Amino acid sequence: MEDIGQQESSTPTPDSIRELNERIKQASAFVDLIDAEMGKVIVGQKDMVHKLLVALLADGHILLEGVPGLAKTMAIKALSRSINVGFSRVQFTPDLLPADLIGTMIYSQRNEEFTVRKGPLFSNFILADEINRAPAKVQSALLEAMQERQVTIGPSTYPLPSPFLVMATMNPIEQEGTYPLPEAQTDRFMLKVVLDYPRREEEKLIIRQNVSAGAALEPRTVVHGDDILAARKLVREVYMDEKIEQYIVDIVYATRKPDQYRLSDLLPLIGHGGSPRASINMALAAKAYAFTKHRGYVIPEDVRAVCPDVLRHRIGLTYEAEAENIAVNEIIDRVLNMVEVP
After folding, report:
1. Dihedral (C-alpha) 219, 220, 221, 223: value to the nearest 10 degrees?
2. Does residue 58 register a pLDDT over 90?
Protein backbone atom coordinates (compact mmCIF):
# COMPACT_ATOMS: atom_id res chain seq x y z
CA MET A 1 0.00 0.00 0.00
CA GLU A 2 1.23 3.44 -0.87
CA ASP A 3 2.77 5.37 2.01
CA ILE A 4 1.04 8.67 2.77
CA GLY A 5 3.92 10.06 4.78
CA GLN A 6 2.76 9.40 8.31
CA GLN A 7 3.77 11.90 10.98
CA GLU A 8 6.32 11.07 13.61
CA SER A 9 4.99 9.75 16.89
CA SER A 10 6.17 12.85 18.77
CA THR A 11 3.79 15.80 18.53
CA PRO A 12 5.40 18.65 16.58
CA THR A 13 5.96 21.87 18.47
CA PRO A 14 4.43 25.18 17.40
CA ASP A 15 7.94 26.38 16.51
CA SER A 16 8.59 23.42 14.22
CA ILE A 17 5.24 23.92 12.48
CA ARG A 18 6.01 27.63 12.04
CA GLU A 19 9.42 26.78 10.57
CA LEU A 20 7.86 24.24 8.19
CA ASN A 21 5.16 26.72 7.22
CA GLU A 22 7.76 29.36 6.37
CA ARG A 23 9.81 26.87 4.36
CA ILE A 24 6.80 25.76 2.33
CA LYS A 25 5.64 29.35 1.86
CA GLN A 26 8.93 30.10 0.11
CA ALA A 27 9.16 26.80 -1.78
CA SER A 28 5.60 27.06 -3.14
CA ALA A 29 6.06 30.50 -4.73
CA PHE A 30 6.39 28.87 -8.17
CA VAL A 31 2.71 27.80 -8.00
CA ASP A 32 1.62 31.40 -8.58
CA LEU A 33 4.08 31.70 -11.48
CA ILE A 34 2.66 28.60 -13.19
CA ASP A 35 -0.88 29.85 -12.56
CA ALA A 36 -0.04 33.21 -14.15
CA GLU A 37 1.56 31.61 -17.22
CA MET A 38 -1.37 29.26 -17.77
CA GLY A 39 -3.73 32.21 -17.33
CA LYS A 40 -2.19 33.73 -20.48
CA VAL A 41 -3.73 31.05 -22.69
CA ILE A 42 -6.64 29.70 -20.62
CA VAL A 43 -9.56 31.93 -19.72
CA GLY A 44 -11.54 30.74 -16.72
CA GLN A 45 -11.42 27.03 -15.78
CA LYS A 46 -9.49 27.99 -12.62
CA ASP A 47 -10.66 24.84 -10.86
CA MET A 48 -9.27 22.60 -13.62
CA VAL A 49 -5.91 24.40 -13.55
CA HIS A 50 -5.75 24.21 -9.76
CA LYS A 51 -6.64 20.51 -9.66
CA LEU A 52 -4.05 19.79 -12.36
CA LEU A 53 -1.42 21.31 -10.07
CA VAL A 54 -2.74 19.34 -7.08
CA ALA A 55 -2.50 16.06 -9.03
CA LEU A 56 0.99 16.93 -10.26
CA LEU A 57 2.31 17.85 -6.80
CA ALA A 58 0.68 14.81 -5.17
CA ASP A 59 2.16 12.49 -7.82
CA GLY A 60 -1.28 11.41 -9.02
CA HIS A 61 -3.24 11.36 -12.27
CA ILE A 62 -6.37 13.20 -13.26
CA LEU A 63 -9.50 12.29 -15.24
CA LEU A 64 -11.43 15.16 -16.82
CA GLU A 65 -15.02 14.85 -17.94
CA GLY A 66 -16.47 17.57 -20.10
CA VAL A 67 -17.82 18.38 -23.54
CA PRO A 68 -15.31 19.17 -26.32
CA GLY A 69 -13.89 22.68 -26.50
CA LEU A 70 -13.30 23.40 -22.80
CA ALA A 71 -9.49 23.84 -23.12
CA LYS A 72 -8.53 20.43 -21.74
CA THR A 73 -5.78 19.85 -24.32
CA MET A 74 -4.62 23.45 -24.06
CA ALA A 75 -4.36 23.17 -20.27
CA ILE A 76 -1.92 20.28 -20.10
CA LYS A 77 0.06 21.64 -23.07
CA ALA A 78 0.40 25.01 -21.31
CA LEU A 79 1.39 23.24 -18.07
CA SER A 80 4.13 21.27 -19.83
CA ARG A 81 5.52 24.44 -21.43
CA SER A 82 5.56 26.37 -18.16
CA ILE A 83 7.48 23.49 -16.52
CA ASN A 84 9.69 22.65 -19.54
CA VAL A 85 8.96 18.92 -19.69
CA GLY A 86 7.98 16.54 -22.49
CA PHE A 87 4.38 16.34 -23.68
CA SER A 88 2.55 13.67 -25.71
CA ARG A 89 -1.03 13.58 -26.88
CA VAL A 90 -2.65 10.26 -27.75
CA GLN A 91 -6.04 10.23 -29.43
CA PHE A 92 -7.73 7.05 -28.23
CA THR A 93 -9.66 5.23 -30.97
CA PRO A 94 -11.30 1.78 -31.19
CA ASP A 95 -8.46 0.45 -33.42
CA LEU A 96 -5.65 1.59 -31.09
CA LEU A 97 -3.27 -1.17 -29.91
CA PRO A 98 -1.20 -1.33 -26.69
CA ALA A 99 1.96 -1.20 -28.84
CA ASP A 100 0.80 2.17 -30.25
CA LEU A 101 0.99 3.46 -26.69
CA ILE A 102 3.98 1.81 -25.04
CA GLY A 103 6.12 0.94 -28.08
CA THR A 104 7.27 -2.28 -29.68
CA MET A 105 10.27 -4.34 -30.83
CA ILE A 106 11.47 -3.58 -34.38
CA TYR A 107 13.66 -6.02 -36.29
CA SER A 108 16.66 -4.46 -38.04
CA GLN A 109 17.79 -6.48 -41.07
CA ARG A 110 21.06 -4.59 -41.21
CA ASN A 111 22.05 -5.44 -37.64
CA GLU A 112 20.08 -8.70 -37.55
CA GLU A 113 18.64 -7.89 -34.14
CA PHE A 114 15.54 -6.44 -32.49
CA THR A 115 15.62 -2.86 -31.23
CA VAL A 116 13.08 -1.08 -29.05
CA ARG A 117 11.01 1.73 -30.46
CA LYS A 118 9.45 3.53 -27.51
CA GLY A 119 5.90 4.82 -27.78
CA PRO A 120 4.38 8.21 -26.85
CA LEU A 121 3.96 7.06 -23.25
CA PHE A 122 7.66 7.82 -22.70
CA SER A 123 7.05 11.48 -22.00
CA ASN A 124 6.45 13.50 -18.84
CA PHE A 125 2.90 14.70 -19.45
CA ILE A 126 0.49 12.46 -21.33
CA LEU A 127 -2.89 13.58 -22.64
CA ALA A 128 -5.04 10.49 -23.15
CA ASP A 129 -7.81 12.04 -25.22
CA GLU A 130 -11.19 10.28 -24.95
CA ILE A 131 -9.81 7.33 -23.04
CA ASN A 132 -13.18 5.55 -23.17
CA ARG A 133 -12.94 5.21 -26.96
CA ALA A 134 -10.18 2.57 -26.77
CA PRO A 135 -10.76 -1.12 -25.93
CA ALA A 136 -9.91 -2.66 -22.56
CA LYS A 137 -6.41 -3.88 -23.57
CA VAL A 138 -5.25 -0.34 -24.37
CA GLN A 139 -6.87 1.10 -21.25
CA SER A 140 -5.13 -1.57 -19.15
CA ALA A 141 -1.74 -0.84 -20.74
CA LEU A 142 -2.08 2.85 -19.86
CA LEU A 143 -3.41 2.29 -16.36
CA GLU A 144 -0.67 -0.25 -15.57
CA ALA A 145 1.94 2.29 -16.61
CA MET A 146 0.23 4.90 -14.42
CA GLN A 147 0.39 2.64 -11.38
CA GLU A 148 3.80 1.01 -11.87
CA ARG A 149 5.56 3.96 -13.58
CA GLN A 150 7.16 1.44 -15.94
CA VAL A 151 6.31 -0.59 -19.05
CA THR A 152 7.51 -3.92 -20.40
CA ILE A 153 8.50 -4.19 -24.06
CA GLY A 154 9.67 -7.65 -25.07
CA PRO A 155 11.91 -9.13 -22.37
CA SER A 156 12.87 -5.80 -20.79
CA THR A 157 11.20 -3.35 -18.42
CA TYR A 158 11.71 0.37 -18.93
CA PRO A 159 11.06 3.08 -16.31
CA LEU A 160 8.94 6.04 -17.37
CA PRO A 161 10.35 9.56 -17.03
CA SER A 162 9.75 11.60 -13.91
CA PRO A 163 7.72 13.68 -13.24
CA PHE A 164 4.99 11.64 -14.93
CA LEU A 165 1.39 12.84 -15.19
CA VAL A 166 -1.52 11.37 -17.14
CA MET A 167 -4.51 13.57 -17.87
CA ALA A 168 -7.29 11.50 -19.44
CA THR A 169 -10.45 13.00 -20.90
CA MET A 170 -13.94 11.58 -21.32
CA ASN A 171 -16.82 12.96 -23.36
CA PRO A 172 -20.01 12.62 -21.26
CA ILE A 173 -22.49 13.22 -24.09
CA GLU A 174 -21.34 10.80 -26.78
CA GLN A 175 -21.56 7.18 -25.63
CA GLU A 176 -21.87 5.38 -29.00
CA GLY A 177 -18.74 3.36 -29.76
CA THR A 178 -17.22 3.85 -26.32
CA TYR A 179 -15.80 1.39 -23.80
CA PRO A 180 -16.68 2.60 -20.27
CA LEU A 181 -13.83 2.42 -17.77
CA PRO A 182 -14.41 -0.21 -15.06
CA GLU A 183 -14.51 1.07 -11.48
CA ALA A 184 -11.25 -0.76 -10.64
CA GLN A 185 -9.48 1.17 -13.40
CA THR A 186 -10.95 4.61 -12.70
CA ASP A 187 -9.81 4.07 -9.10
CA ARG A 188 -6.23 4.53 -10.37
CA PHE A 189 -6.96 8.20 -11.04
CA MET A 190 -6.39 10.39 -8.01
CA LEU A 191 -8.96 12.98 -9.12
CA LYS A 192 -11.94 13.11 -11.42
CA VAL A 193 -12.89 16.67 -12.32
CA VAL A 194 -16.15 17.52 -14.10
CA LEU A 195 -15.88 20.64 -16.24
CA ASP A 196 -18.64 23.12 -16.90
CA TYR A 197 -19.07 25.81 -19.54
CA PRO A 198 -17.35 29.17 -18.98
CA ARG A 199 -19.31 32.13 -17.65
CA ARG A 200 -20.64 34.81 -20.02
CA GLU A 201 -17.84 37.33 -19.35
CA GLU A 202 -15.22 34.61 -19.70
CA GLU A 203 -16.67 33.47 -23.03
CA LYS A 204 -16.55 37.01 -24.40
CA LEU A 205 -12.86 37.15 -23.45
CA ILE A 206 -12.28 33.75 -25.08
CA ILE A 207 -13.79 35.02 -28.35
CA ARG A 208 -11.72 38.21 -28.22
CA GLN A 209 -8.52 36.29 -27.50
CA ASN A 210 -9.04 33.81 -30.34
CA VAL A 211 -10.14 36.13 -33.15
CA SER A 212 -7.79 39.08 -32.55
CA ALA A 213 -5.02 39.80 -35.07
CA GLY A 214 -2.25 39.81 -32.46
CA ALA A 215 0.10 36.88 -31.96
CA ALA A 216 -1.15 34.22 -29.58
CA LEU A 217 0.44 34.33 -26.14
CA GLU A 218 2.68 31.43 -25.16
CA PRO A 219 3.49 30.37 -21.59
CA ARG A 220 7.09 30.95 -20.45
CA THR A 221 9.10 28.30 -18.67
CA VAL A 222 9.09 29.27 -15.00
CA VAL A 223 10.15 26.00 -13.30
CA HIS A 224 11.81 22.74 -14.28
CA GLY A 225 11.03 19.08 -13.72
CA ASP A 226 13.53 18.83 -10.86
CA ASP A 227 11.70 21.64 -9.04
CA ILE A 228 8.48 19.60 -9.22
CA LEU A 229 10.22 16.50 -7.85
CA ALA A 230 11.60 18.55 -4.94
CA ALA A 231 8.16 20.05 -4.31
CA ARG A 232 6.61 16.57 -4.18
CA LYS A 233 8.93 15.67 -1.31
CA LEU A 234 7.92 18.85 0.52
CA VAL A 235 4.23 18.09 -0.03
CA ARG A 236 4.69 14.88 1.96
CA GLU A 237 6.13 16.95 4.82
CA VAL A 238 3.02 19.15 5.07
CA TYR A 239 1.73 18.66 8.62
CA MET A 240 -1.55 16.78 8.99
CA ASP A 241 -3.00 16.61 12.49
CA GLU A 242 -4.49 13.35 13.73
CA LYS A 243 -7.92 15.03 13.88
CA ILE A 244 -7.68 15.74 10.13
CA GLU A 245 -6.71 12.11 9.50
CA GLN A 246 -9.75 11.01 11.49
CA TYR A 247 -11.91 13.43 9.50
CA ILE A 248 -10.75 11.83 6.23
CA VAL A 249 -11.41 8.32 7.58
CA ASP A 250 -14.89 9.37 8.75
CA ILE A 251 -15.77 10.80 5.32
CA VAL A 252 -14.67 7.63 3.50
CA TYR A 253 -16.33 5.35 6.07
CA ALA A 254 -19.57 7.30 5.71
CA THR A 255 -19.65 6.24 2.05
CA ARG A 256 -19.29 2.59 3.11
CA LYS A 257 -21.49 2.48 6.21
CA PRO A 258 -23.76 5.56 5.99
CA ASP A 259 -26.09 4.21 8.70
CA GLN A 260 -23.29 4.76 11.27
CA TYR A 261 -23.29 8.48 10.42
CA ARG A 262 -27.07 9.12 10.59
CA LEU A 263 -27.33 8.67 6.82
CA SER A 264 -29.43 5.50 6.73
CA ASP A 265 -31.44 6.80 3.76
CA LEU A 266 -28.25 6.53 1.64
CA LEU A 267 -27.93 2.76 2.25
CA PRO A 268 -30.14 1.72 -0.71
CA LEU A 269 -28.44 4.29 -2.96
CA ILE A 270 -24.75 3.36 -2.50
CA GLY A 271 -23.57 0.15 -4.13
CA HIS A 272 -20.02 0.47 -2.84
CA GLY A 273 -18.09 3.21 -1.06
CA GLY A 274 -14.58 4.57 -1.32
CA SER A 275 -11.65 2.14 -1.07
CA PRO A 276 -8.56 2.67 1.13
CA ARG A 277 -7.00 4.27 -1.94
CA ALA A 278 -9.64 7.00 -1.56
CA SER A 279 -8.37 7.76 1.97
CA ILE A 280 -4.74 7.80 0.82
CA ASN A 281 -5.48 10.03 -2.16
CA MET A 282 -7.63 12.40 -0.12
CA ALA A 283 -4.80 12.86 2.38
CA LEU A 284 -2.20 13.42 -0.35
CA ALA A 285 -4.45 15.74 -2.35
CA ALA A 286 -5.28 17.76 0.79
CA LYS A 287 -1.56 18.16 1.49
CA ALA A 288 -0.92 19.24 -2.10
CA TYR A 289 -3.88 21.65 -1.92
CA ALA A 290 -2.43 23.19 1.26
CA PHE A 291 0.93 23.50 -0.53
CA THR A 292 -0.69 25.41 -3.41
CA LYS A 293 -2.15 27.77 -0.79
CA HIS A 294 1.40 28.29 0.60
CA ARG A 295 0.61 26.56 3.88
CA GLY A 296 2.64 23.97 5.76
CA TYR A 297 -0.36 22.37 7.47
CA VAL A 298 -3.71 20.92 6.39
CA ILE A 299 -7.01 22.42 7.53
CA PRO A 300 -10.51 20.88 7.11
CA GLU A 301 -11.24 23.25 4.20
CA ASP A 302 -8.40 21.61 2.23
CA VAL A 303 -10.03 18.20 2.69
CA ARG A 304 -13.45 19.54 1.71
CA ALA A 305 -11.96 21.20 -1.40
CA VAL A 306 -10.51 17.97 -2.80
CA CYS A 307 -13.09 15.52 -1.44
CA PRO A 308 -15.63 15.63 -4.34
CA ASP A 309 -12.90 15.08 -6.96
CA VAL A 310 -11.37 12.20 -4.98
CA LEU A 311 -14.68 10.42 -4.28
CA ARG A 312 -16.67 11.19 -7.44
CA HIS A 313 -15.43 8.11 -9.33
CA ARG A 314 -15.07 5.87 -6.27
CA ILE A 315 -18.69 5.68 -5.11
CA GLY A 316 -20.83 3.15 -6.95
CA LEU A 317 -24.52 3.95 -7.27
CA THR A 318 -27.25 1.31 -7.15
CA TYR A 319 -29.94 0.90 -9.82
CA GLU A 320 -32.33 2.53 -7.37
CA ALA A 321 -30.18 5.67 -7.20
CA GLU A 322 -29.94 5.82 -11.00
CA ALA A 323 -33.70 5.29 -11.33
CA GLU A 324 -34.27 8.25 -9.00
CA ASN A 325 -31.67 10.35 -10.87
CA ILE A 326 -29.53 10.70 -7.76
CA ALA A 327 -26.10 12.08 -8.67
CA VAL A 328 -22.86 11.11 -6.91
CA ASN A 329 -22.28 14.76 -6.05
CA GLU A 330 -25.52 14.84 -4.04
CA ILE A 331 -24.34 11.89 -1.94
CA ILE A 332 -20.93 13.50 -1.38
CA ASP A 333 -22.60 16.76 -0.31
CA ARG A 334 -24.81 14.87 2.16
CA VAL A 335 -21.76 13.08 3.62
CA LEU A 336 -19.77 16.32 3.97
CA ASN A 337 -22.72 18.04 5.64
CA MET A 338 -23.22 15.25 8.13
CA VAL A 339 -19.66 14.21 9.11
CA GLU A 340 -18.44 16.33 12.00
CA VAL A 341 -15.74 18.84 11.06
CA PRO A 342 -12.78 18.91 13.51
Report:
1. -80
2. yes
